[in-house]
Design brief:
Elements: H1 2-5, H2 11-24, H3 26-41, H4 47-54, H5 57-65, H6 69-78, H7 87-100, H8 108-121, H9 127-136, H10 143-158, H11 164-177, H12 187-194, H13 201-215
Helix pairs in contact: 2-7, 4-5, 6-7, 8-10, 9-10, 11-13
GO cellular component, one term: Golgi membrane
Region (Disordered): 32-63
Biased composition (Acidic residues): 36-47
Length: 216
């Protein structure tokens, strides 16, 4: 799974997002490579090793190998409505975003910054959905975690499949009404919303919840 979080391990992403990376994420490429190489060459090296010793084992791999700055940068540009990424890059990103929904640790920044809430409040339930609800109820008192939750909320607005709880509840409706609508740019979400009361009650319920969340 390493390649999912760190752009340099994902050849498809590199090939298809090269122009967008050069345009929007150049600082990430330079910094990440310098940082990464120096650590590889020198086993006694600096912060990274010290930092990973303070974390427990299951987090160490995430810290050490999955510092996904490039992908993080592309993801935040993907949700920025004033920026249009190239369509091939968007397809790669959607793939990465959807895969990271299966395991919250692959969304490195979200996991690192919201870990304390995840470990106390969100055991045994859809973790991203749990974070969104905590955010909505004003129970997140950490600004860096808040920023990450805002990002995943925006991702769900752009690509409905980036919102697992919503996709799950509205699966039948998506197939029935929105199957031929392309992913991205929020088009499938708009399609569902335009169906009003025609969608199933479980889909209506979560759409209502999400509209309250977007307003908050």
């Amino acid at each position: 799974h390493v390649h999912l979080a760190d752009g340099r391990f994902n050849q498809g992403l590199i090939d298809n997002c090269q122009r967008d990376i050069n345009k929007y994420c150049q600082s990430e490429v330079v910094n990440k490579n310098d940082d990464y190489d120096s650590n590889e060459d020198d086993p006694d090296s600096n912060d990274n090793d010290n930092r990973k010793k303070t974390n427990d084992d299951d987090d160490r791999v995430t810290d050490r190998k999955m510092d996904g700055g490039i992908i993080q940068c592309l993801r935040s540009n993907y949700t920025n409505t004033s920026i249009t990424l190239e369509s091939q890059c968007v397809l790669e990103l959607i793939d990465v975003i959807q895969t990271s929904k299966l395991d919250i640790k692959l969304d490195v920044k979200l996991y690192q910054n919201c870990r304390k809430f995840l470990k106390i409040e969100c055991i045994g339930i859809d973790q991203e959905d749990c974070l969104k609800l905590l955010y909505q109820k004003n129970k997140i008192d950490d600004d860096t975690c808040k920023e990450q939750i805002k990002r995943i909320i925006r991702e769900g607005q752009v690509d409905i499949y980036a919102d697992r709880a919503l996709t799950f509840a509205c699966q039948a409706d998506l197939l029935k009404y929105c199957n031929d609508i392309p992913i991205g740019s929020g088009k499938q979400l708009q399609c569902l919303l335009s169906m009003g009361k025609s969608v199933t009650s479980q889909c209506q319920t979560i759409l209502q919840k999400r509209q309250e969340l977007w307003e908050s």
